[in-house]
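To: structure subgroup
Subject: Chain for Friday's discussion

All,

I'm putting the inputs and outputs inline so they're searchable in the archive.
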Amino acid sequence: MFSKSGVNRVRQLILKRYTHQTSQTSQTNVLTPTFSVDQIRDLPYVDHVDLVWKQLLPYKVKINKRKTPILFLHGLFGSISSFNSIGRSLSAVVKHPVYAVDLRNHGDSPRALPHTYTIMARDIHNFIKQRKWDECILVGHSMGAKVAMMVSLLYPSLVSKLVVVDNTPHSRPLNHQFYKDLLGMCEVEVNGHQYKTANKKTVGKISQINRFLTQYEEDHKMRQILTGNLMTCLKHFKNRKDINHEKEVFKMPVMNFYKYDILRTLGGWPQLPQVQKFDKPVYVMYGNQSEFVAPQFHKEFYRYFTNVKFQDFDSGHWVAMEQPRQFLKKLAKFIDYDEYCKFKPNKVRYVKW
């Protein structure tokens, strides 16, 4: 998401806020919520939700429906659209059918607790079974990477290859910037009525929200990811009884994420004492400017996976967004080397080859 120097700047700012409260009062207030968690409505507890999904079809390229399907799993604050361009381009290159889902509490999928890796892996297991796939190739980024790893370990027969994008199978607290981003979204939600259009449902003042979020997130691209969660059209409310149309502005239940400290859960990793090692191909793609897959964490993969290959990129946490061309090439080569070698570059429309 940002460079090592950027991470250090954030750390310095946070340190100043806590050690110089008298001189940094206005900045400290940004980190203090204006709302009470007691006023936040609880979410239902549901062991399984039906995930919203989409096939990412390539442009004017015929795919082979008999090839193993590829399933993309997005990260925190992401959705189906996170891998839209990459997914369509990948399908054009390798000729596999490519799909993406909205994980629970993201995009247009249902809102429900618990939001744990074990439960999200079960959602994916059920999705694969509903599609009647024998197996699939899983590609997960960040939170989605941990979900993908959990699926491969709990339901190994359903996964033929695993691609892990910038995360590791161990517990490590999320960077404080993620907490700032979430708090900023919550503060927008608290005053949601200010940003509604005349119909009191959809959000219309996106630029105003973007300006407000600069107090919490300096990076413009990251703010685009956050505002990508806004409910900007009526289809976001279709058959959704779990959303307060007049008050809520984000498709994610951001207030519940704050109330239940979901980010702490997402920084964790479940205890898996009885699980067998996954022996099929695993490809770990990570940014060399990201904290998530630092070299000292590579050993964590060998606790669970026997056939691991690492590939670093000159990027931060958002590898596919920062290095789309190289990401696509490396991913296609791993998934289907034969199709990769035969591919003609003029067939890619979404990402430059």
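Points worth raising on Friday:
The radius of gyration is 20 Å.
The chain has two domains: 53-172+275-347, 173-266.

D.
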